[in-house]
């Protein structure tokens, strides 16, 4: 029987990251190290336990039977380690995170839960708004980090992945050629609204806003009710809607990128941020 207290924390972290992400490359990214270093740490843990924990082929990374048995104990070991460290801290650390409304998808609560599990001493405050508003708040120092659609005027930030847009409406939505397109959009400060209106103007398609403001959930409700068309990320669309761009001969929309801006500098916060970025990329890849 092995002694959990004598295990190397970094080696156990490497094993859990590989198990969660099913990839040595993504595990290395999440932990801020190299794939070679991850492999060395895993081998050290397997040698210590006397069992192979991960089965690896050119196409597949998965838990071995022994690895599946060990995984829950490994999580408990890391959680106890983090609680011990958190108990030594004089105060909880605050992490103010902004997430653009058009970026916010169903996976975000899971990502935040993983971030909290990674660092229980971190108090996470989340703000949802348009990319432009969040970027201004970040520049004023009100946010420690923000995940937004790339602003046309800025090329900084860490790219988390591409973002593609489409024209979405209910299958029964009617629009007659030559009549103004009924458009639902967020407030005028919303960059996605700008993408839509610029594309329509360039194509010479008349449009009118029949619903403006009220937040992304209200815009989704208006589109789902069949009142209008709106532009959404192809990853986050209202239930029961379809892409009607081709059907109504609407212009193609330019793609953008999702970027992460951050001012966090201490090692613990940067480590937590790497975990968030790696998890975000993982969920986007699985959704695609």
Concise overview:
Residues 7-64 form the HTH lysR-type domain. Helix content is 43%, strand content 22%.
Shape: elongated
Average pLDDT metric:
82
Report strand %. Answer: 15-25%
Number of separate structural domains = 3
Unreliable sequence segments:
none
Largest sheet: 5 strands, mixed
The CATH architecture of the largest domain is: 3-Layer(aba) Sandwich
Radius of gyration: 23 Å
User: What spatial order of strands do you see in the largest sheet?
Assistant: 4-3-5-12-6
The helix/strand series, from N terminus to C terminus, equals HHHEEHEHEHEEEEHEHEEEH
How would you sum up this structure, described in words?
The mean pLDDT is 82. The two termini are 43 Å apart. 43% of the residues lie in helices and 22% in strands. The chain folds into 3 domains: 4-88, Arc Repressor Mutant, subunit A, CATH 1.10.10; 93-161 and 257-287, Periplasmic binding protein-like II (D-Maltodextrin-Binding Protein, domain 2, 3-Layer(aba) Sandwich); 165-253, Periplasmic binding protein-like II (D-Maltodextrin-Binding Protein, domain 2, 3-Layer(aba) Sandwich). By secondary structure, the chain is an alpha/beta fold. This is LysR family transcriptional regulator. It comes from Phreatobacter stygius. Keywords: DNA-binding, Transcription, Transcription regulation.
């Amino acid at each position: 029987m092995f002694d959990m207290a004598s295990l190397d924390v970094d080696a156990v972290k490497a094993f859990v990251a590989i198990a969660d992400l099913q990839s040595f490359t993504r595990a290395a990214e999440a932990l801020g190290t190299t794939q070679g270093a991850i492999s060395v740490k895993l081998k050290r843990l397997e040698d210590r336990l006397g069992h192979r924990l991960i089965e690896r082929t050119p196409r597949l990374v998965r838990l071995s039977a022994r690895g599946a048995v060990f995984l829950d104990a490994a999580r408990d070991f890391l959680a106890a380690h983090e609680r011990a460290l958190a108990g030594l801290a004089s105060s909880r650390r605050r992490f103010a995170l902004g997430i653009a409304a058009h970026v916010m998808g169903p996976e975000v609560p899971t990502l935040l839960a993983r971030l909290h599990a990674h660092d229980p001493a971190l108090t996470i405050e989340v703000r949802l708004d348009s990319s432009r508003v969040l970027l201004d708040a970040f520049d004023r120092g009100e946010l420690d980090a923000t995940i937004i659609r790339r602003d046309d005027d800025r090329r900084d930030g860490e790219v988390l992945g591409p973002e593609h847009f489409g024209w979405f409406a209910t299958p029964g939505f009617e629009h007659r050629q030559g009549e103004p397109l009924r458009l639902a959009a967020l407030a005028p400060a919303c960059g996605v609204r700008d993408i839509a209106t610029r594309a329509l103007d360039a194509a010479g398609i008349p449009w009118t806003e029949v619903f403006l403001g009220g937040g992304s959930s209200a815009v989704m409700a208006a589109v789902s009710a069949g009142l209008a068309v709106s532009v959404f990320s192809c990853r986050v669309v209202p239930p029961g809607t379809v892409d009607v761009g081709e059907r109504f001969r609407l212009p193609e929309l330019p793609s953008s990128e999702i970027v992460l801006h951050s001012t966090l500098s201490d090692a613990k916060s940067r480590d937590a941020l790497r975990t968030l970025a790696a998890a975000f990329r993982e969920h986007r890849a699985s959704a695609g």
